[in-house]
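Trying the structure run again after the queue cleared.
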Amino acid sequence: METFTEVKIYSKPKNVYNAIAKEIIKMVQNSNQEIFDIALSGGYSPKGLFKKISKKYAEQVPWQRIHLWWGDERCVPPTDEQSNYKMTVDYLISNINIPENNIHRIQGEQDPELEALRYSKEMEDTLNSRGKNPVFDLIILGLGDDGHTASIFPDQLDLFEHEQNCAVAVHPLTGQKRITITGNVINNANQVFFLVTGTNKALRISEIMNDNDAAQLLPAYYISPENGTLTWFLDEEAAAQIS
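Done. Tokens:
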């Protein structure tokens, strides 16, 4: 089945954040599901999205129905500045009224292998499933300068075939361990949003969009939800080199 892919380009990052926030509100309001499972991304771009939601849309989002998960986490305590969870608490969770039970944290301070198993099981026990994989209603992904997404790096493309829902990944430069959801889970989502802004992402975006041979080395190239839709939310800088 061909993935339905859409590319949306906005003049500035703040317009990208606005568009995604509105899309999330619409999606949840139009859904008759009682619970809506969203996996969040770490990194710089989501920070802007979280700030925008906190400032402008906090009251409009039905948080009682939303469960928050993470696509990846660095193996650090939740109070560490590098923690994706901490960043989400600082810029989003502390500003919204969401039940504590709706927050599903990856415990970066635990033994990585055991935590990957535990989080895999939590997903299995909690989420809907399609085939043998759990289903997120929405996964928000970022794009690294090297083409990585979640914590699937170019030298670890085998994580697309991994049978667990979560696995331990290693940052190729720093050697830092991370826990990431795997490719099968990402490609089983109902919707995937890529949130990508800035000039430093333009080359990677052009490789993927223009289907260059170089793109086949990039993890983000392999994101293609089999039963869902893929939407790229780009600012003009990130989209500048698409032919």
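The first strand starts at residue 4 and ends at 10. Worth checking whether this holds up in the mutant runs.
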